[in-house]
Each structure stands twice: as structure tokens, then as C-alpha cells.
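[SOLVED] Need 3D model of a two-part complex

Original post:
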Amino acid sequence: GQNIDQPTEMTATEGAIVQINCTYQTSGFNGLFWYQQHAGEAPTFLSYNVLDGLEEKGRFSSFLSRSKGYSYLLLKELQMKDSASYLCAVLDSNYQLIWGAGTKLIIKP
Amino acid sequence: DTEVTQTPKHLVMGMTNKKSLKCEQHMGHRAMYWYKQKAKKPPELMFVYSYEKLSINESVPSRFSPECPNSSLLNLHLHALQPEDSALYLCASSQDRGGPYEQYFGPGTRLTVT
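Solution:
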């Protein structure tokens, strides 16, 4: 079967750094996406990784290890507006997105 | 223009009503998607259109009927829905279906079935 695991909820402090992990077992792999979703709103694209390594984009970075079936999203200099759910999604061999359940990130002052 | 628009934003309908959700994109994308999302759950794929043809139907009940009138528009016709169909309905588009293309999501329609 296909499975994507991420923590249900995390809490962090404003200005700090947080790492959200994602592990996956899917039928084939054509890349991994991270999306941000604020409550009641649509998901917005954050990053795409298909090769091993770290991709940095401003305060957000995403890492992939294909051999370990593992990715993480790193958020630096946390702001209150970063409070949201973060969804990990894998593109399988049929180019279909398999979604994780999402990690709710709570930022405290 | 990287926007996907959806109308209406909110919809309340009875179980005997017929209504339609609309989605539009002007990015020249050739793949369009309908998702259903319940609270605290990830989006659940319902339908995929590729080059205006239905390519995926994820065993969705026939009370949901998709339509793609042209490459920019996607409709979802609703009829005889059940209260458990209440959810956020998201439309998305991507450059193509068979490749590593990010999906752009519309703001969604919050549907309540009474």
C-alpha cells in the first residue's frame, strides 16, 4: 500500500526554527511536494524535491533522501503567520499525488 | 496570472436540490482537478481532467457529475447530495498531468448539505 506519515501537531516559538518530518512508502516516486494550508483556505505550494539534498527558498528549506524515504521541511525565523497545516505529498509512478494527513503547526509568542 | 477562481465561495443546499460549482483558470494549464476536503484531513482526489477529457474518476458517487466545457473551465454538478457530502471542494490545475508539475489550488467552495 501507499503510506505517508507526518506528525499530527507541533508547537514552536516565534523567532525559532522548526523541522517537520515526512516519511513515505509509495508505488514509485516522481518527487515530493510540500504545501502550506491556513485554516479554511486552499493549499499553497511551498517546495518540490525530486533529487536528494536540500533546497532553500528564503525562510523555508526542504530536504529529501530517496534511499530513506524521508523528507523534512525546515522553517526558520518563525512568524505568527506561519501557523498553518503543512502537507507532504508524493507524486507516485502514475503521477498521482498521494497526500499525507498534514502537520498542524502552532506558533506561540 | 497564477490564479484559480472558484464560485460560489459558500453554498448551502438541501438534499433534493441541484447546484453547480464552477472553476476557472487562465494559465494555459491542461490538467484540472476536483478535490473534496473534510476538516483536519488532506484533500481527497475526486476527478482529473487532462486535455479536457476525464482521465481519473476516483469511484465518486454519481450524484457528483464533472464537466469540462473548455480548457479553462471546470464544473461540478451536484444532485441529491447527502449531509456527509458537506465539505470544502477544491479545484486545482497544473501544467500537465503526467509530470512533476505543481498544482495551483482555488480558494474552494464551502458546501453544506442540509
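Edit: Chain B has a mean pLDDT of 94.
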